Amino acid sequence: MGDLLWILMSAMVVNNFTLFYFLGLCPFMGVSARVETAVRMGMANIFVLTITAICAWFLNTYILPVAPYLRLISFIVVIASLVQIVEMTIKKVSPVLFRQLGIYLPLITTNCAVMGIALIAVRSNYSASESFVAGFAAGAGFLLAIVVMSSIREKLDTEWVPKPFRGVPIAFVTAGLMALAFMAFDNALLKNLLG
Amino acid sequence: MRVTTPTEDLFRGVWRENPVLIQMLGLCPALAVSNTVANSIAMGLATFFVLCGSSLLVSMFKQFIPHEVRISTYILIIATFVTVADMTLEAVVPVVHKDLGAFISLIVVNCMILGRQEAFASKKPVGRALLDAVGTGVGFIIAMLMMGSVREIFGQGTFLGISIFGPNYEPWVIMILPPGGFFTIGFLLLALNWIRQRREPRPAVREWPEGVAERRVA
Prior knowledge:
The complex is a heterodimer. Chain A is mostly helical. Chain A has helices at residues 2-14, 25-31, 35-63, 71-93, 95-101, 104-109, 112-123, 128-157, 168-182, 187-194.
């Protein structure tokens, strides 16, 4: 159990997907203009990342022994179909939910974060439950980062920013400062907290 | 859509529509592996190979790919080339391969490559598609080199391993860590914006964002 807790905290804050691994930057920069949209994007991501992590474990267990060179191709095919299926299922089961996060789901297919969680889970040889937790934690970390970023950007919108900085450059500098702050979460801190 | 000349196709992707700095595609690898110049060059070359190979194939087979499944087909072609690049790098330069880690595999979800197939290679003849791919690939390598040089020179005091400032240089370690990546690209984009804005004619009245002019006391 301590193992899972370690993976949860590690993937969520220490190795935050966006601020440490640089994954998921396109939606991070593109969707973080308002807090409301950021929250919905983060939720959609948690959902997709968790399922992807499980599928990655499943594929890895059955593909790797047989044909290791097919790993990448099988991942990408499964991820693309998975997102399509998830989108259709949500549309059928809960139209309200679909309308709220529907447009973000196709954006998640070519999101580095989804492929990234699959590759990281495989590389670290996680078991099924560890993969589940890692996927969830990756999504939670992304949600955390994108909500903080969007709050800062909402505030920045009402303040004066020098002209060359406006738009993307100030967003990147903000992300850099956030990454700097998140560096305070490191393995030593985790060890002290979790023993 | 106006007809473009071959030279235009070739040079467009190099600077004017640079994939990383102007179109802001493919940011994930640009930030993640650009902590040294050697890694940047390796990643740039790998992406160049994947881009050219997949543009070539997509353009050659464009009549046979049904419209409904075109994105999946492009992704499959790209994934095949990425697997080849990954294995080649692992065999030829295992040290660099270990440094780059999972990011070589992440070339497959690089928006830039898929974007080029969708926008260009699937509609143009093979020669033009190849020119466009070469131009965009070179542009990507240039952007990676810019990022990598800044980060390595300030973060380690070396360029490709050769020490520039001598042994007494106190390196700005932050530059080779993740925040450094964000700061570097932020300031690079800032520099580009500043240069672009200097070229524009100055407006007669200084413009503030809405609501700020009333609140400023100076």
